[in-house]
């Protein structure tokens, strides 16, 4: 059944397939190219926007770091001022080889009130003397006990006390000895009016404060990341559970060429990343600000389903047109096929209706001419067969008549040979004998009869031949 269907409609399906191939394949190629160009443009646009987001984040962080530096320097100067004012009010002491220890107690009121009105929320304050020993500690603006003063804290104090007045030193991202939280410590020198070093003031800013202060959010559904010089994640706007595991991969992505974001594979997802350096106040090593956006988010804005819908609609339209056109082409061919089958079955009287143009119309006309020629040949063959049958019948009749005539002639000869035959009988038998002889003579001319039969097969009817024979016989009888 399937073979019969394919044999009957195979050409139609082939034509439809070719129409689809010619019409849809170029459209699909153009759609794929347009989607590729659009996708490339979107990635370039995304790189520009992502870099703008990174620059905006850098500006916010620079501003925050600058405010923190100014705040710390101003606080250090106020501490030095209070300490020097309190020293000036004290009575002079006798000189000694050991310099007196600086009394930082007058600075308590300064540091207590500072945290309440500062734009940058320093969570802890620590005053360290010139010998790198902690003297005062404040947590959330309130005096508190000293935590463990680590080697990092002493190194930060030494670096700050070696820094010119008005500058700060950054201590990186560490865990606070006072609060056990991740903080960003800064330190500034406390200098006297005569340029003498009194100590250093340390302030710690919680890392999550920068998270709250950072108002920039990555566009296109992305995330913002800030790494220190060692690649440690400082803060991020990504609230996903895998942020800590993703951070090293993003940091290792490199800087890229700026025209397109860097592609990073995270699990089964591809992420576009743009990285920019961040100069941190008081640090010699730059940090890194990264903006990441899932590539499916960028590529999704190219709306691939639109191109797929266009190709699908075009396929349906071309398929429908192809079916109609192929049906118009194959319908006359199927009619000719039906006509061939009926001719093979001997039916030459069918009415072939073929509607077509050009070659199909001429083919149908030639087919009809062939059918008419076959019909005429069949009619001639039928007539020839019929005449041949008549000839055989006439030969059989001729033999029978010849035999009867022979009998009649013999009987007449014997009758006429009798000497005592009455004259009246002889007069009646003689015409019979002569007529029988003449009929025998006519029947004994087969070549004449054969020629007459062929002439009748070519044109004249058998009745004409028989009529001519009858007239001859009549003439003979009359004779």
Write the layout of secondary structure elements.
Elements: H1 2-89, H2 108-117, E1 124-129, E2 134-139, E3 142-143, H3 151-161, E4 169-170, E5 174-175, E6 182-191, E7 197-206, H4 207-213, E8 223-227, E9 233-236, H5 243-251, E10 262-266, E11 269-278, E12 287-294, H6 295-300, H7 304-344, H8 359-416, H9 423-443, H10 446-458, H11 462-478
Antiparallel strand pairs: 1-2, 1-7, 2-3, 4-6, 5-6, 6-7, 8-9, 8-12, 10-11, 11-12
Search tags:
rod-shaped, 7-stranded antiparallel β-sheet, disordered C terminus, 12 strands, 11 helices, about 475 residues
| Topology, number of strands | 12
From the helix content, strand content and strand pairing, which structural class follows? alpha+beta
Secondary-structure element string: HHEEEHEEEEHEEHEEEHHHHHH
Low-confidence stretches: 459-479
Computed over alpha carbons, the radius of gyration is 62 Å
- Give the rounded overall mean pLDDT: 76
- What fraction of residues sit in β-strands? 5-15%
* Overall 3D form: rod-shaped
Distance N to C terminus: 78 Å
Number of helices: 11
Largest sheet: 7 strands, antiparallel
Percent of residues in helical segments?
Answer: 55-70%
């Amino acid at each position: 059944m399937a073979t019969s269907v394919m044999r009957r409609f195979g050409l139609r399906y082939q034509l439809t397939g070719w129409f689809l191939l010619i019409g849809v394949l170029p459209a699909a190629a153009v759609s794929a190219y347009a989607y590729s160009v659009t996708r490339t443009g979107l990635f370039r646009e995304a790189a520009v926007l992502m870099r703008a987001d990174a620059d905006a984040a850098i500006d916010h962080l620079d501003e925050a770091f600058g405010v923190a530096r100014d705040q710390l320097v101003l606080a250090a100067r106020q501490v030095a001022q209070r300490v020097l004012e309190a020293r000036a009010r004290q009575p002079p002491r006798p000189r000694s080889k050991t310099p007196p220890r600086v009394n930082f107690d007058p600075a308590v009121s300064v540091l207590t009130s500072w945290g309440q009105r500062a734009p940058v929320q320093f969570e802890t304050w620590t005053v360290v003397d010139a010998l790198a020993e902690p003297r005062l500690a404040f947590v959330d603006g309130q005096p508190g006990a000293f935590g463990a003063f680590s080697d990092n804290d002493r190194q930060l104090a030494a670096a700050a006390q070696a820094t010119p007045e008005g500058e700060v030193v950054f201590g990186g991202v560490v865990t606070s000895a006072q609060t056990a939280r991740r903080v960003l410590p800064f330190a500034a020198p406390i200098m006297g009016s005569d340029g003498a070093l009194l100590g250093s003031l340390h302030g710690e800013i919680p890392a999550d404060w920068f998270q709250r202060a950072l108002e920039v959010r990555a566009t296109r559904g992305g995330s913002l990341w800030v790494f220190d010089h060692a690649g440690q994640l400082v803060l991020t706007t990504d609230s996903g559970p895998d942020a800590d595991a993703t951070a090293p991969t993003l940091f290792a992505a490199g800087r890229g060429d700026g025209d397109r974001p860097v592609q990073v594979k995270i699990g089964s997802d591809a992420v576009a990343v743009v990285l920019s350096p961040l100069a941190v106040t008081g640090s010699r090593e730059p940090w890194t600000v990264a903006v990441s956006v899932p590539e499916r988010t960028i590529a999704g804005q190219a709306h691939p389903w639109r191109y797929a819908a266009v190709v699908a609609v075009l396929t349906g339209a071309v398929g429908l047109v192809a079916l109609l056109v192929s049906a118009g082409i194959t319908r006359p061919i199927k009619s000719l096929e039906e006509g061939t089958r009926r001719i093979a079955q001997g039916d030459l009287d069918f009415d072939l209706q073929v509607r077509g143009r050009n070659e199909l119309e001429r083919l149908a006309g030639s087919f009809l001419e062939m059918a008419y020629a076959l019909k005429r040949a069949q009619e001639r063959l039928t007539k020839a067969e019929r005449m041949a049958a008549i000839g055989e019948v006439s030969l059989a009749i001729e033999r029978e008549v010849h035999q009867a005539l022979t009998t009649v002639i013999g009987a007449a000869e014997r009758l006429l040979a009798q000497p005592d035959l009455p004259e009246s009988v002889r007069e009646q038998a003689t015409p019979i004998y002569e007529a029988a002889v003449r009929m025998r003579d006519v029947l004994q001319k087969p070549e004449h009869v054969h020629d007459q039969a062929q002439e009748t097969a070519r044109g004249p009817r058998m009745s004409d031949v028989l009529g001519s024979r009858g007239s001859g016989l009549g003439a003979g009888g009359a004779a």
